[in-house]
Structure formats: structure tokens, C-alpha cells
């Protein structure tokens, strides 16, 4: 019996061993195909995880409304060229520089203005806060990047900064309004020059509709001159930036204006009823063509004169050999507001491209001005009024640097004028007349000398004729 039991146990063990071996050999070994399959499955899982993360990021992003954007950060390529032209040093307006420790000193003056504003409109804080909350969503959409501020902080910033601007403009035009005590006039006079600069910096802007809405809250009897807000801001810009020109602003509705920098740009819109405007608009393909320099134009017989009675800084004309340019001032604020205007024009969504008139204007002047000699000729004609106290070379270098890192404009507004100037310079007769005038008729004595020499030659010719006639007779 023990033998049979042992045999049975051995048989079971043998069958167990056979089953194990069969299972071992029948189990498929990992092949290159199976390894690739596992890797593909892992890759698909990774791709799915990546896709879900991207979808989540997209869902978290606010809807893009680029057509509404009008207040931008200055691009780095421009900022690095002249950072001081874009960075406020005295006062922060709007969210981009809000809360900077080095600008907190002006916060007290802002609060003084806010208090005076409430007294002027005869309302309390609760009233204006309730109204300002209605502007928040629209105001946020006008900035080209999300504003990381709570609703309360954003509304507070918007109210205090906007009231400061409105109150400042009223104080500067006190003859039009009832005056209020409490505004630090000494402070305003000390920093007024800086305010003119920094209120026209692109990163230091509030939506214009906010300023307009706050101004509209004024009781009619407080506005003694019945002046509009566009007129008020126009006087502010004219007194500080475009001094002495009395140029029309060209704004028919405040809805056209995005902010103060944008309003300043309306002074650079050409008059639509001029011959040059119609001529430029009729040309379909206005390629980028810079004019010859002032020195070369004068050598070719072109007369350069100051335009009298121009209604726009862009009303430049060339007729019958005379180039007329409206006069403009070079002062401490010029480079700052021009650079910010050019930065704004590069990013604002406008059609057609020739709406970027400031870039076209500065490019045209850059073509005319290459050396200090070009500046000297424009200063002599009263076209450039140099108030920066520097040399003509510094002015020429200013224009040569303004257009660096600026994209070449399409549909160049001054193409027709530039082409006509080049065509004139290629003509032989005007250049010859200019050479004669420069080399032989440059002074009254030169005229007398040439006249005397011509008279003597005529006498000699007549004498020769009479002598020959008498000889033959």
C-alpha cells in the first residue's frame, strides 16, 4: 500500500511539474512589438494629460478682445532704447505702476484732489463709488493684459487717479470754474513739468470715458465758461506740449478718444481738404520712400519755407519748387510724447495703416534731417524752434534715433511728396540755377560784379562790331 501511495505522490508531483513547465513555456515572452505597445499606451496617456492641462489653461483665460485694447505695455525693444521716456518718476496713473514705493509721495495730493472734486460736484463718496463700479468691466477690457487687482482696489485706483487728472486740469483753467482751496498749488507748480510728461506716457493712462464721465457729474452752474472736457484737455495739451500753435484738435466726439495719448495724436491728423491729402489718398500703392535731406534739396534749388496758417503739423506741401513745413518746437517733452505716441500707434488696432500718422511724420522728418547742417537750415527758416538748449547736432541725433526699432510703415502717407522731391532733384535746370545762385550770386556785390562784367563784355562786343564794320567799308 505504501508503494502505491508513494507512486501516486510521485505521479502528482510529476503532473504538477509538467503543468508548471507547460504554463512557463506557453506564456509569451516580451517582444519588441509588445514593448512598443506598452510605450505607445504610456505616450497616449501622457498626451491625454497634456491635452487636458492645455484645455484647462484655455478655459481659465478671459475672452480675447484685442479690438478693444488701447492701453499697452511698451514693447521691450522700444523700452530698452530709452526707458526713461516710458517710465513715470513722479506719479502713477492707472494700474501698471500703481503701488510703486517710489511714487507713493504723490498719493496725498491725489486724495486732496479727490476731496475737492467731491465738494465741487456736491456729492459723497458712496455716490461716486456706486457709479464707478459700473465702469469697472469696460475699463478692465481696455487694458491689453489682465489687471491683478481686486474689484475694490481697481475702483479705488480708478476714482482717485481720474479725479486727480480732472481736478488738475480745472485748477490750470481756474478762470473757467469756481476755485477751491485745499489743492497744493506749490506742489503742482513744482511737478507741473513732470506731470505734462508723465500724463502722456502710454503706461500711465486711464480710459478717457472715465475722465469724461467724472467731468459730466459737474453741476452746470460750476462750469462758468461752459467749456467741454475735450476743450479743457485740448488746452492742457496745447499749453504743455504744442505751445503757441493753436492747432485744432480734430475730435468731433469723445467716443473717438481712448486716452490722453490718443487725444494728443489727433494733432497729427492731416487736414482732409488739402491738395496733398487728396493726392496721397488717390495713390493706391504708396511705398515707403524717404525724402532727400534738406541740404540736398537746397543744392537742387528747392526753397524751404515755414508754412503759415497750417491747420495740422502734417500739412506739408511741395509746389513750384517750394517745400513748406509747419513749424514745431523741440523741447524737453518732445521726445517723450513722440516716443509714446509712436509706441501706441504700433499696437493700436486701426485700419487702414496710414492712420499711423505720427510714425509717418517722424519718418519723413528723419529723412529730411541727417546732419547738423540740415537742422541749421530749418532753424534759420523758423521751422524748428529749438528750446532744449542743445546744439544742432543733438537735434539731428534725436531724429535719427526716434525711428530705430520702428517697423517700416506701409502705405506711406508722404510718398507723393517724397517722390516729387526726388523728381525735382533729378532735373538739370533747377540744380544749375541753384549752383549759379550759390556760387555767383550769393551777395549783392556778386550781382553788381556780374552786371559790371556783362556790361563791359557788351561794350567790347559793340566796339568790335563797329571796328569791323568800318574796316570793311
Task: Describe the overall structure.
With 473 residues, the protein is mainly alpha-helical. It folds into 3 domains: 190 residues, no CATH class; 152 residues, no CATH class; 30 residues. Helix content is 56%, strand content 4%. The strands form 2 sheets. The chain has a 3-stranded mixed beta sheet. A two-stranded parallel sheet has the order 4-5. Strand 2 and strand 3 form a beta hairpin. Helix 5 crosses helix 7, helix 7 packs across helix 9 and helix 15 crosses helix 17. It is elongated and about 115 Å long. InterPro entries: DUF247_pln. Keywords: Membrane, Transmembrane, Transmembrane helix. It holds the Pfam family DUF247.
Question: Treating each run of at least 4 consecutive H or I residues as one helix, how many helices?
Answer: 20
Radius of gyration over C-alpha positions, nearest whole angstrom: 38 Å
Whole-Å distance between the termini? 181 Å
> Which range does the strand content fall in?
under 5%
Average per-residue pLDDT, rounded, comes to 81
Helix proportion range:
55-70%
| Class derived from helix and strand content | mainly alpha
Brief synopsis:
It comes from Momordica charantia (Bitter gourd). 56% of the residues lie in helices and 4% in strands.
Topology (SSEs and partners):
Blueprint lengths: L1 H25 L5 H29 L15 H4 L27 H15 L3 H9 L2 H6 L9 H22 L12 H14 L9 H9 L12 H12 L19 H6 L9 H8 L11 H6 L3 E4 L10 E3 L2 E4 L2 E3 L3 H14 L9 H12 L3 H9 L3 E3 L5 H11 L12 H11 L2 H12 L4 H29 L1
